[in-house]
Design a protein that fits this description.
Elements lengths: L3 E4 L3 H13 L4 E4 L2 H9 L6 E5 L1 E2 L2 E2 H11 L5 E5 L4 H9 L4 E4 L4 H22 L13 H12 L7 E4 L6 H10 L8 E5 L5 H9 L16 H4 L4 E5 L6 H13 L1 E2 L8 E2 L3 E6 L3 H6 L5 H7 L2 E4 L10 H16 L5 E2 L1 H9 L5 H15 L4 E2 L6 H4 L7 H12 L22 H15 L5 H20 L4 H8 L3 H11 L4
Parallel strand pairs: 1-2, 1-3, 3-6, 6-7, 8-13, 8-14, 9-10, 10-13, 15-16
Antiparallel strand pairs: 4-5, 11-12
C-alpha cells in the first residue's frame, strides 16, 4: 500500500500524526508545504491518502486539493484547519475533499478518519481497474440473470411479451432492451402509459384521429400504432385500459388493422406489442375488468421482474451506479458510500423499488453534507429500518468490495428473505424487566431502561473497535457527534 502524505507547516502536527499512523502500521511521508507535495507528484510519486492543512506559507490546502483532484480524481484528501469557518468547510467540500477535520482534533479521531479514507481509496482502485461502460441494466441476482437470459432467447423473435412486476421495477427498461436486441431494433420504439391518459383521449392516442372527428381535432393525427410501424409499441399499465378499448386492441392484435377515430379507411400497422402491468391480470379477468381473450393474446411470453427487496444483493451495485449517474447529470464529483450505509439501504424494503433507490441517490448527491455518505446522512425512514444480516447481503458486500458495477440501469432478482423469525430472547427479558418496574410503581422506567440500553450498545461497540469512537459510531449507525454526546451523558468516560 502507498504511503499517507501529511502536509502541514506545523512540525508538531506532522510529528503527532506520523507517530500515531506508524503505530497503526501505516507508511507515512510528511511535507511542510504544498510546493513539496506538487514536486513529489511531478516526480511520479502517489500517495494512498493526503492529509493537508488549509493555510500554510507558500500555498493553501484548497489549492493543493484542486491540483491533487485534477491529477488523481479518486484520491481521498482530508483537509485540516484551525479556522473552523463556513467558507473553509464549503471550499473544502466543493473541491472534492473526503472530509473536513477541524483543529484541535483528537488523535484517535484523526486516525480513524484516515483509516476510512484508506479503505475508500482501496475501493476506488478496484473500481478503476474495471472498464467503465454505459450500462443498460444492472443485476447479479439470479432472478435478474433469468430476465437477461430470457431477453437473449427472445432476441431473434417478434413474439408478443407481457412484463409483470411492481411499480418501479424497470419494466420499460426491459421493454426497451427487448426492442434493442430484436430484429426490429432499427425501427421506432414507442411507449405509452395507458393509465396516465384520460379515457376519452386514450383512443385517439393509440389509433389517431381524422380532422373534425371531435371538437378540437383541427388536423389529422397519427396514433401510436402508426408511429410504431416497423418497430415496437410498449403499452405500460395495460391492466388499466378501459374495457371498450380492450376490444379494439384485440382486433388490432388479431388482424393488424385499425381505424383512426372518425376514419373510414382501415390502416395496417406492422407493430410488435410489448405490454406491462403491476396488476394481477388473471384476477382482473375473474373480476370481469379485463378481457380473457385479450389476456391470452398478450400473455404469449411472460417476464416477471422481481421487487428490489427480493434482490438485496444488487443494492450496493445499483447504489454506486446511481450515485455516479446523478453526479454526471449534475456535473459534480460522485459521492461515495460506506458499507454501514449500504447495510442500512439493504435492510430497507423499498416499496418504490429501483425507481425509489435511484431517486434516493439523486437526493444524496444533492443533500448529503460530505463526499462520503454515512448512515446518519440517510433519510429518517432508512435509519429506522432494522438492519437485516442475510446471506444475500453478506454476498453483496463481498461482491461490492471485489468488483465495480458491471455493464447493465435497472434490473431485479433473488428472494433474500427467509421465514419470519421469533423475537430474540433479550426482548423477552426486557419485557419482564419493564413489567417488574412498572408494576412496582416506578415513574422513570423509560429513562432508566433507555440509558441502560444505549450504554450497553455503546460500551460493546467501543470494546469491539478498541475504543475507536468513529468506527464504533459507524458500526452502530449513528453520527460521530451523537456517540460523543451519549458517552458524556451516560458517564462512559469514567
Amino acid at each position: 500500500m502507498k504511503p499517507i502524505w501529511v502536509v502541514d507547516d506545523d512540525q508538531s502536527i506532522r510529528f503527532v500524526l506520523e507517530k500515531a499512523l506508524s503505530r497503526e502500521q501505516f507508511s507515512v511521508r510528511t511535507f511542510s508545504s504544498p510546493r513539496d507535495v506538487i514536486k513529489a507528484l511531478d516526480e511520479g510519486d502517489t500517495p494512498q491518502v493526503v492529509v493537508s492543512d488549509i493555510r500554510m506559507p507558500g500555498g493553501s490546502g484548497i489549492d493543493l486539493l484542486a491540483t491533487v483532484k485534477q491529477r488523481h480524481p479518486g484520491l481521498p484528501v482530508i483537509i485540516m484547519t484551525a479556522f473552523s469557518d463556513l467558507d473553509s468547510a464549503v471550499s473544502a467540500f466543493q473541491g472534492g475533499a473526503f472530509e473536513y477535520l477541524p483543529k484541535p482534533f483528537d488523535v484517535t479521531t484523526a486516525v480513524d478518519l484516515i483509516r476510512r479514507a484508506v479503505e475508500e481509496s482501496l475501493r476506488e482502485e478496484v473500481a478503476d481497474a474495471t472498464p467503465a461502460m454505459a450500462p443498460e441494466m444492472l443485476g447479479q441476482a439470479p432472478a435478474m440473470q433469468d430476465v437477461f437470459r430470457a431477453i437473449g432467447r427472445l432476441s431473434q423473435s417478434n413474439v408478443t411479451v407481457l412484463i409483470t412486476g411492481e411499480s418501479g421495477t424497470g419494466k420499460e427498461l426491459v421493454a426497451r432492451a427487448l426492442h434493442k436486441h430484436s430484429p426490429r431494433a432499427n425501427g421506432p420504439f414507442v411507449a405509452i402509459n395507458t393509465a396516465a391518459i384520460p379515457k376519452d383521449l386514450l383512443e385517439s392516442e393509440l389509433f389517431g384521429h381524422e380532422r373534425g372527428a371531435f371538437t378540437g381535432a383541427q388536423t389529422t393525427r397519427r396514433g401510436r400504432f402508426e408511429q410504431a410501424d416497423g418497430g415496437s409499441l410498449f403499452l405500460d399499465e395495460i391492466g388499466d385500459m378501459p374495457f371498450d378499448l380492450q376490444t379494439r386492441l384485440l382486433r388490432v392484435l388479431s388482424d393488424g388493422q385499425f381505424y383512426r377515430v372518425g376514419g373510414h379507411q382501415p390502416i395496417k400497422s406492422n407493430v410488435r406489442v410489448i405490454a406491462a402491468t403491476h396488476q394481477n391480470l388473471e384476477e382482473r379477468v375473474r373480476q370481469g375488468g379485463f378481457r380473457e381473450d385479450l389476456f391470452h393474446r398478450l400473455n404469449v411470453i411472460r417476464l416477471r421482474l422481481p421487487a428490489l427487496h427480493e434482490r438485496r444483493e444488487d443494492i450496493p451495485m445499483l447504489t454506486r451506479f446511481f450515485l455516479s449517474k446523478s453526479a454526471r447529470e449534475l456535473g459534480v464529483d460522485a459521492k461515495r458510500i460506506t458499507d454501514s450505509a449500504l447495510e442500512r439501504l439493504a435492510a430497507f424494503e423499498f416499496p418504490g423499488n429501483v425507481r425509489q433507490l435511484e431517486n434516493l441517490c439523486h437526493w444524496l448527491t444533492v443533500m448529503a453534507p460530505a463526499q462520503v455518505v454515512e448512515p446518519k446522512d440517510l433519510p429518517p425512514e432508512m435509519l429506522n429500518a432494522p438492519v437485516l444480516h442475510t446471506p444475500a447481503m453478506a454476498d453483496a458486500h463481498m461482491q461490492a468490495a471485489a468488483v465495480a458495477a458491471p455493464a447493465v440501469p435497472l434490473a431485479e432478482g433473488q428472494s433474500a428473505a427467509g421465514a419470519p423469525q421469533a423475537a430474540p430472547v433479550w426482548l423477552a427479558d426486557l419485557e419482564r424487566e419493564a413489567r417488574r418496574r412498572l408494576e412496582a410503581g416506578e415513574t422513570e422506567v423509560w429513562d432508566v431502561l433507555t440509558r441502560q440500553f444505549e450504554g450497553c450498545l455503546i460500551h460493546t461497540a467501543l470494546d469491539i473497535t478498541r475504543g475507536r469512537r468513529i468506527e464504533a459510531a459507524q458500526r452502530l449507525g449513528i453520527g460521530r457527534n451523537t456517540i460523543t454526546r451519549k458517552i458524556q451523558e451516560l458517564g462512559l468516560d469514567d
